[in-house]
Amino acid sequence: MAKTVLIVDDSKPVRQLITFLLERAGFYVIAAIHGKDALEKFRESKVDIMITVLTMPEMDGVELIRTVRTTTSQFIPIVILTTGAQEAEKQEAWQAGASGWIKKPFTPAELVGLVNKLAVQGA
Fold first, then answer.
1. How far apart are CA 45 and CA 48, in angstroms?
2. To bridge 3 with a disulfide, which of 8, 47, 98, 119 should be the other Cys (CB 3.0-4.6 Å)?
């Protein structure tokens, strides 16, 4: 059965690109436009991996990570998608429970490779 990846980004083109790449690689993708939307979708579905940006409306990425880490699904990998966050932002995300990050712009191979690696670790 395909692993489910929850993508959280307020940029529609980025969500569409990531969805396309990951679905082509065999993953099932759920897309959310901000943290509150992501939490709702997270609670409705079994999510294996989450990829989120830090800065977005409604609920930022750090608050989203903290909230997810306090649930029964606290062990899923959560990757920060960043354009080059400041070191303080990265530290805050790590402290909240981020598993890693991938920097924009990324290549399709980088993204799919990271998600494949996390999918195997979480198997």
1. 10
2. 119
Give the three-state DSSP class for 74.
coil
Taking the alpha carbons at both ends of the chain, their separation in whole angstroms is 11
Q: What is the pLDDT of residues 59-89, one digit of tens each?
A: 899 999 999 998 766 689 999 988 875 777 7
Query: Cα(58)–Cα(103) distance, rounded to whole angstroms?
Result: 23
Distance CA 59, CA 117 (A): 28
Extract the tokens encoding 58: 């409604």
Spatial separation of the C-alpha atoms in residues 1 and 66, rounded to whole Å: 28
Of 98, 17, 113, which Cα lies nearest the Cα of 61? 98
